[in-house]
Amino acid sequence: MGFLDKVKDAAGKAADQAKHATAVGKEKLEDVRLQKKINDLCEEIGALVVAQKRNEAPLDAPAQIDAKVAEIAEIEKQMEANNLAGAGDGSTEAAS
Questions:
Q1: What is the pLDDT of residue 27?
Q2: Fewest C-beta atoms under 10 Å: which of 19, 63, 87, 96?
Q3: Per-residue b/e over 54-65, b at no fewer than 16 CB within 10 Å?
Q4: Distance between CA atoms of residues 3 and 9, nearest Å
Q5: What digits encode the pLDDT tens for the residues 7-52?
Q6: Which long-range contacts (C-beta less than 8 Å, at least 24 apart) are formed by 85-89?
Q7: What residues contact 45, with CB distance under 8 A and at least 6 apart?
């Protein structure tokens, strides 16, 4: 293998690593966005529970809470799917 072939090979590997790093970064940003959505839903559930304890909640508070819990479960499934897809990309980094 000539010198130029080695340079091309090294450049190709570097480009692949850069693409992988970009993909990992996008996955982490998506996880942060999804976690923020979960946190927001938890705050909304907490506010509804406090309102219930004070007898100030809307009549449909239990249904609202159930819907928010179901939404959290769906987001968690999405995050798990994202993590499994990221783990299957050949990287040696553990999913966090």
A1: 85
A2: 96
A3: eeebeeebeeeb
A4: 10
A5: 888 888 888 888 888 888 888 899 999 999 999 999 999 999 999 9
A6: 86/24, 86/27, 89/20, 89/23
A7: 65, 68, 69
Using the structure block, give the residue that is written with the tokens 């690593």: 17
40 closest CA partner among 66, 61, 68, 59:
68
pTM comes to 0.70
CB-facing half-sphere around the CA of 16: CA atoms within 13 A: 9
Q: How far apart are CA 84 and CA 86, in angstroms?
A: 5
